[in-house]
Structures are given as C-alpha cells and as structure tokens.
Amino acid sequence: MVNSDGGRFGRAPAAAGSSFAHARANGLLAMMLALGVVLSTPAAAQTAASPPTPASTPAAASAPAAEPSPWDAPEPWRTDRFYLQTSLYTLHFDPSDDHVNQQYLVDLEYRYNKSWLEGQWLAGAAFFSNSFGQQSQYLYGGLLWRPFVDAQPLYFKLTAGLLHGYKAPYDEKIPFNDSGVAPAILPSMGYCYQRYCSELIIFGTAGLMVTLGVTLP
Prior knowledge:
The protein is an alpha+beta fold. The chain is 22% helix and 40% strand. It contains three helices and eight strands, in the order H-H-H-E-E-E-E-E-E-E-E. The N terminus is likely disordered.
C-alpha cells in the first residue's frame, strides 16, 4: 500500500510488533533458565559438600567396644586376684606374760582363677611377729569357698604350709618344729564389702586373729 507521499506503510507496524513478541518470549525463556540454575545450585552444592555420616562408614560400625577396666568390676572381691591384709587384733586362749598381742602381719595372697573341690585355689606368703615377738614367716597354699548363694561376700578359707621363726626357748610351742620349720594348717572365715575384707583366723588351740585387707585386680 502506498501513502499520499508515495511511500509504503502498513507492514512496518506489523514487523515491529512481531519483533517485540519474539524479544519478549526470548527474555521470558532466559529468566526461566536462570531461575532453574539458581534453584538447582544449592542442592548440588549441599550434596557435594556433605560428607558421609560416621554411622554409615564401615570403620565406625566395626569399631570394637572399649574393654571395661578391672577396677570397675561390680564384684571385685570375686574377680580380683591379689589380696593384701594386716592384723588388727589377736586373742590368746591361754594368755601368759610371754605373749605378744601385736603381730604386725603383712600377708600377700594370690587367688587363682582355678578351682578344686568347689573351692578357689590360692597361694600366699605372710610375714609377722609371732606370739613371742619373734620374726616369723608362713608360706602356704589353700582353698577358698563361697558356699552361700545369697551371701557371696561371705567365704571360708583353709590354708596349709610351712611355718618358720619359732626359736628357742619357744621352739617347742608348735609341734614338729625340730628343724626350725614346722607344718601348719590355718582355717579362717571372712567377709568382703567392695574391695575391703576382714578375716577371722584360728591358729590351732593357741588363739585367733582379726585382720583387715583389700583386694587388687
């Protein structure tokens, strides 16, 4: 179509409108692509930055549990191996002026994790001042029983061994002491509270002794 000046008109506005529509569509598409990139970026970053949790790693799952310390045993008097005790009190059944009632006992005992005749094996060495104030030694072995199910801290003990230190003029106060070393058998009973124990020891027809000791792992 030609205007009055001889120039063409009518198609130019249509071309301009079409170009505007294409530009608008392209801009909208660009905004949608940009929005998609922005929304997807944090998730990708989080996935790349997040390390695996310790619980999911095989090393953590297979790590062995820490072994409990023997010092934390719930019944140490049952599981401890060493026992150390000293004397608190001595009573002589037929006292005399020659008797000494302070024995200064140092007794170290080891309790094995083995049994015989339903008793626990033990062995020990005791150093003490005998009833007449002479330095003496007692090397022994024995058995320990806990016969009462409802009173396990209560126990009975029987030891047997060699006794040395009874010298003249008191060497005949114990039997079979011709060589200076005599056999001896000592029964006792004891009770423990946690790691602390007390024993009542009978030494033949001569008397008894009360001791206090502690068990050690």
